[in-house]
Structure formats: C-alpha cells, structure tokens
Amino acid sequence: MAKPAKQEFVQHITPRNENFSQWYTDVVLQTDLMDYTPVRGAIAMKPYGNRIWELIRESLDKRFTETGHENVSLPMLIPESLLLKEAEHVEGFAPEVAWVTQGGNEVLAERLAVRPTSETMFCTMFAKWVHSWRDLPMKYNQWCSVMRWEKTTRPFLRTSEFWWQEGHTVHATAEEAQEETLLMLEIYRELCEDVLAIPVFSGLKSEKEKFAGARATYSVEAMMQDGKALQAGTTHNFGTNFAIPFEIKYLSKDGDLKYCHETSWGVSTRLIGAVIMTHGDERGLKLPPRVAPFQAVILPIAAHKGGVMEHCEKALDQIKAAGIRVKLDDRDNVSSGWKFNEWELKGVPLRLEIGPRDIENDVATYMRRDTFEKGTLPLENLAEEVKKLLDEIQENMFAQALAFREAHTKNVYSFEELNEQVQGGYAKTMWCGSLECEENIKEQTGATSRNMPFDQTPIGDKCVCCGEKAQKVMYFSKAY
RNA sequence: CGAGGUGUGGCGCAGCUUGGUAGCGCGUUUGGUUCGGGACCAAAAGGUCGCAGGUUCAAAUCCUGUCACCUCGACCA
After folding, report:
1. Which of A53, A61, A224, A478 is 20 to 30 A from residue A195's alpha carbon, by CA?
2. What is d(CA A59, CA A62) in angstroms, rounded to the nearest whole number?
3. CATH 3.40.50.800 location in chain A
4. Does the structural domain A409-477 have CATH classification 3.40.50.1980?
5. Does the C-beta of A331 come within 7 A of strand B?
6. Distance (Å) from CA A287 to C1' B24?
7. Residue A163's pLDDT is what?
8. What ipTM does this complex have?
9. Is the shortest CB-to-strand distance from A19 to strand B under 7 Å?
10. Which residue in A221, A368, A366, A352 sits closest to A281, CA to CA?
11. Are A399 and A371 a contacting pair, CB within 8 Å?
12. CATH 3.30.499.10 holds for A20-279
C-alpha cells in the first residue's frame, strides 16, 4: 500500500473551517489539556492545560505584586444574607448559584452559597479591616475556583466550576478607584497581547452588559478565528455601591467618617480557550512561547546511532540553563514522524531535531510551529539562537492574530452593513446609547455590544440602528 | 430551556430495521527487524454495548427515564 497522505494523519481533528466548534472540542480533548468529569459541566484540568494556567498565573502575579497587590484566601461558602445585601448583584447572580443546605446530618438554618464571585465576602471582611485612611488603599487578590450553574457549558469557555483570580480593592477616593480600574484593565491588555499574543480591544461596557452591582465595567475583547468575540477579562468600578450596604467606612484625615470606593477585576481559565481559538490551526494547538509548557522539544533522530543521544542531552542542558522550558523526547517506542505530528498537535512553538547528519555539520535542524519554516542552528550557541527564535515566534503569532482581527473588523454606517459585518467579525459603529437600539441589534443580528473604545473619535453622527443623534463609538459582534 | 443528532475494549467504527449474551482497524504488552514526516513481522492481553428501570425464555438490538457530548436557536457579566 502506498504511504498515506499527510492529511490522513490529522483526520481525527475536524477541519477548522468546516465546523469550528467541533474543531475546538477535538483539539481540546486530543491535546490532553483537560477531561470531562462526572460533574455536569465541570472539567478536570490535566497537567498540560494546568501548566498553561500556572504560567498565566505566574505572569499575572508578578504584575499584581509590582503594582502593590497582595494575595489572600477567603472561604468558598457565602451565607445567603451577605449575598442579598446588594440588590442588583444578587439579582444578577441568583439564577446560577449553587447552594449548600446541609452540614453533616444537620439542616442549616441559613443556606450557604458556593461562591459565584466573592464581592460580598470581601466586602464583609473589608468592613472589619478598614478603619482609617491609613489602612487605604487595601489591594487584595485571590486565586481560587468559583461555581456558576450554567445552562450550557464548553470546556474552558464556560464551565460550572472554573479557576480564576479575583482582585478586590478598597480606596479612599473615587479618583483612586477609577485609576485602579483602568490600571488593571491595562494589565489585562498587556497579558493578552504580550504574553498570550492575543490582540484585544479595551473599552467601557454598556449599561446593559456591565457587571451586576458595578457603576462601570471595562473589558478586553478578543476575536476568535470564527469571527466571534470573547470577553477575555473585565474590571469593575463599584464606586460606593457595595460600601454603603456593607458599611465599609474609614475615618479621613480631617476626622470625617467616609464611605470607601471599591473595584474588582478578574480573568479565568477561559483565557486558555482564547489561546486555542485565536491561534490554533488544522494541525491543532499553536501555543505562544510565553505560555507554552514546553517552548522547545528536542527530537533525537536515529537515536541508536553513536553520539546522537549525547548531543541531544548536551543541547538539553544548554537550553535549560538558559531558562527555556525544553523537553527531550527520548521515547523509543514511536518513530520520529509520529513525534513530529504529536508535538505539532500539542502546539510546541519550536522543534529541534538532532541526528547524524546534523552532528556532522555541528547544527540542529529546527521547525517553527507558527510558520512551519525549517532551518538549522549552530550547536555551539544553540540556547541563544533558540531564545531569539522563540521571541520571533511570539511576535509573529501576535502579528498573525492582529492581521486576522484587522481583516475582520470594519467601520459600518448602516444597519444592513452592521448585520453583514457581525456575521463574521467586529463592527465598529455609532450608537445613540439607548437600550432599545442595543436590544434591537441583538434581536435582529445576534450581535451584542462589546465595548466602547477609549478613543471616541466619531466615525459618523447617526445611530446605526435608529438614525437619531449618535452618542458613542461602539463595537458590536456575536460573542461567546 | 426548545429542535435535531451521537453514546459499543484506550481511540475510531460496524452490528440495532428482521432480539438468540459482541466484531473490525488503530493503540497496548512481549520478542525481533527498523529509525531525517505518523515503520514492519510474529504472538498475546483487553469490552457485556453511557447509566437506571421495563418488556421477553432471551436485550447492544424493543420501550420509558436519565446523563454526557455535537449542531442550530433561546438564555447568560
């Protein structure tokens, strides 16, 4: 029988353009990122997926620390009475809260919510911890999992239980709270663009789309390769909305008792889904070097031949010493070709091959996952060359994703144009600011308002929906 | 939540219409030959058919319920 064509080896992944959802599910399962569990809508993060989350976490923690935040850990159960304190908040979350009603054999007098988010618990604690202007600002963050009883779930994008960080801060003034809200948004933008190589639009959410209980919500919005938007992170300015019902007050310098101003912000394991859907291709996952569990993999070719393994191990030590996450795949039960395909599927940014022919020339053969370009690197200063290539790959992946987004983002000036554009991308348009128009657009096109960019230079003067005087520049698109 | 589809060794599937207690390919294990894009030969192990009921002498197959996944729609910070 003739050698099967390459296509046949990847046929277990549904082509991306044929059925994006199925492609996503195939990639997620076959790359060993996660698995389904006996709990409805809850996934198990396997080592490969968990490592990506750890790398995101390390990267964020560093930025949080640099900007004066500290990590804490609060209980996962929240008494119902706390949840009820802020009306808008409870209304927003009530439908998706899971409840604990019994402890051991004892039925609880007050049921406990499994946290869907911890504003109410943080606020309760802040009320105990904040007394004086000297205690402020108080800038805390926690890494934990939360539970929301979602009706439909998808690995990473929307699961009943998911892992995230939630920052909660308390400030003396409205100005400081606003500054914090925007600073954290900028940190999220930086994480997405510089680390995950995902271009995002930063901006302000509409009243309709803002967080339950917030005065203002900001988001970073990414675009997936099916043209749909994914909210990658949000930051909220609460003003005194929670401080009043929870009585978070401080004694100011001049002796007045004042309400505090608060913020909260979070990103979740959803970001892993964003990475998959932004960069993945027909061969599977494509990981940006900065969050790849293995940035490079070394494959010995004809490992049994003299010197091959020795050279591979030497290369491994050298690259590892340079602080690069590298793996030597020395399995002898699968062929090189098999390994090529497997590591491409798993998205490793750079493949290095070392075989007799390379050794003869004092080089390693490489292949970039982002461009499939092949070449050779001198063994002598392999680590430096690898580092350089990884930086190039990181940059190029961002450039590719940005080019895709730009190609799928358009200014639109009429309802017809809007409707057409949101079938496969972002529409930037003018909006009168009314809920009616926002709802009409959603009903008739399926698109929701994403956010209002900080640069509000008008691109017209009439609302795309009602034709009345436009107030805002807004991005609309279908969203996850 | 509504409409449609799927669920059979680790993975991908056949069998179901016309009930008679499972079959193929890949993978796995052992031995050998190979090794620069998913190698080959030989031998072996591995499942009671998503789960729970029901009909029947007999259920992967028929009926009911339920769970999970996929598609479209609704809903969702």
Report:
1. A478
2. 5
3. 296-389
4. no
5. no
6. 37
7. 94
8. 0.87
9. yes
10. A368
11. no
12. no
